[in-house]
Automatic annotation (TrEMBL):
GO molecular function: metallopeptidase activity
Domain EcxA zinc-binding as annotated: residue spans: 411-707
Organism the protein comes from: Bacteroides caecimuris
Official protein name in the record: DUF5117 domain-containing protein
Entries under InterPro entries matching the protein: DUF5118 (IPR033428), EcxA_zinc-bd (IPR032534), MetalloPept_cat_dom_sf (IPR024079), Zn_MMP-like_bac (IPR034032)
Coiled-coil ranges from the UniProt annotation: none
A Pfam family recorded for this sequence: DUF5118
Superkingdom of origin: Bacteria
Amino acid sequence: MLKGMISAIFLAVACTFLYGQQPSIATFLKGEAPVEIIPGMFTTYRSDKHIYWEIPDSLVGREFAVTTTILTAPAHPDRDMEKKFGYSGDMIGPVFFSFQKQGNELWIMDPQYERVIENPEGVYAKIAVQRGNGRLYKRLPIITKTQGSSLVEIGEILKDFPLFTLDIVSFDLSIGTRLREKDSIKEIKGYDNRLLIHASRAYRSSSMRMPGKPVSSPYIGDWDTGICIKLLSKKPLEAVTANAGTYFTIGKECFQGDQPAIRKSVVKRWRLEIRAEDEERYMRGELVEPIQPIIFYIDRNTPEKYIDCIMEAVRDWRPAFEKAGFKNAIDARLAPTAEEDPDFSIYDSTYPFISWKISGQNNAYGPTPCEPRSGEIIACHIGIFCSVLNLEQKWYFAQCGANDPQAWNIELPDSLQFEQIKQVLTHEVGHTLGLEHNFLGSSHYSIDQLRDNDFLSQYSIGSSIMDYVRCNYALRPQDKVDLKNRRIRVGEYDKWAIEWGYRIFPGKDASEREKNRALWNQEKQKDPLLHLSSRMDVRAQAEDLGNDHVAVNTQGIENLKYLCEHPDVWNVTDKTSLRVLQGRYEAVLEHYKQWVQHVLSHLGGKRLAEPDEEHIYIPEKADYNKKVMSFIQAYILQPPVWMFDEKLTAKLEIDGSREFDRFYEELMSEMIRSLREVERTENVCEGMLSVDEFLESIHKELFSEWADNIPVSDAKYKVQLLYVSKLAKLLDRSEKITSSKLLVSIMQALNRIKEESLDYSHKITDPVAKKRVMFLVDSIWF
């Protein structure tokens, strides 16, 4: 009742003012009493039945960004743990609109910026201009207007129009049909440059049948959402033309007169500007503070013990911005309470936000939502799922457990968890700053450098935290390195990338500044640590480490062997420890396969010839691939029985025999794939590994017992059978092999196996060995 009285008094005062200034609006609203008046960039009038916006003419033609944040989500009875979105704190958008006045209507327009007309003269440019720069969303009748503003009814639009609802992501969220009668606008807050709307929605779930899953019963879920409508800057941020990689970008068709359109891209980046009085100091090389630093606010639902390390993870990017000339350019704070800052809201896109999510999802994400005019990043919600630590502890165990016995603990100590959180979040913050993955970042350092604590303190284990590289698995059990040197950190590439994208270069105009940026970078690119390469380059692999995959991955596998053979590592005391150790055992198997795949990729692989020759690749030569073949002999053809030892698998309640079969099915498939890659590349130039050399190397090791007339172990016999069956299958027409040379080589290899196996069967006296080898002969069907 008190609120109603205040609204009535407010209306009376407002009407006194309005009768003098805008009598038409005041007169119209007299029939709507009581009316709540909400000042802001759009003055909002709200009655029981209607919501109106008074839109100043000065904002017609300006552009606005709409973001919708999920505040509370229903507890899905059929929630898919693989889905990353649909949680409290998730931000949707931005989407953009502008107003255009057409007679007695205001049109809500969708601004179009994928085309840029640099020179309007010429046929192509003139055709492009005819399309216009906007697409119609909605027509709003102007109810009444004054000399400087227009009044429109917006209530139903806010409730129903997809721009302001979850409808645009209904499929991604699996939320089905919206129940429009349950839509409710709970609160509206106005500010000079934005409007905040708290709205609740209800959706009836869809009961779509998914493969392998039962059809769930439909249910009605209530979604609490926050909408932020933010006025974009009148002057767009100066766009930076993208180079070959480094940053996420926005693509544009550029028309330059009488020429067909060319494709241009601009990078995504935050607006970091300096005050006029600081320009001279900045250009002299002094550090200056930006007008508006990038400040992330941390979800208050985050466990208290992680808040400081999350702040440190964000601040780890400060040295990179200092290289770009900015002091205190990035920071993180705990989200304030309502008492500390009544204006703060997690759905206000003014505030970048780090959201903590309770979920079984082992992941995190860092988006780069930007506006289309210049690529300026204008809003950001990072998401961290609490279960990402489950994945991190498995990675750390497999990669650093041999060097750090702390990894054996069922619950890792806080010191380790803090480093893991920092590693995850620093990577995601890098994405929100605009940076793409750089899978070349882990390929620069030798195994000796990766074991040198002083070197690691200066350079980390790679040049970029934007690579998929986690921990330092090049370490041997006896190596002494600091905890921070067992994980990836912000590296030299990351510092260069931030400087390249964010530094303000001298110049009288944008063109000159762009030229100076390019000249600066041309000199910088002489340093190989600053290179980015496509995934075509065999060195640019995910989850790898070091400049020699054979050497580093050999050490990684030896570390796994150390763990499997160490009884204290696998100390099962209860159901919890059993579950954790089973997960770690799975991680051991996965890492072994992954490290083998890194090495196999060199067979038929290629690498960039020179940094300045972006499209010229040279194949991996035989000298390195001979090292690869030695690796295959040691780590594929000699079965790692220590991973499947019954003393270990029984303790973990795992069927070791079944795991072995599944493990080798994948490994052998990868090895046969490599054979086909060798065939594809053996004649591209001199000095390449040939198919016959590949097959000879495999045969020599896999059937070595036959030459010595000794029994073959159970494990190796399984590998022999699998190899023979995979080779024989290549002769099947379903494999569609068109190379007659490869087919001939495979037939010769199988004939050799058949001949030598018959000879072995005549010489061996062990009855089991004799029976086995005859079964192998029978499996060669031609």
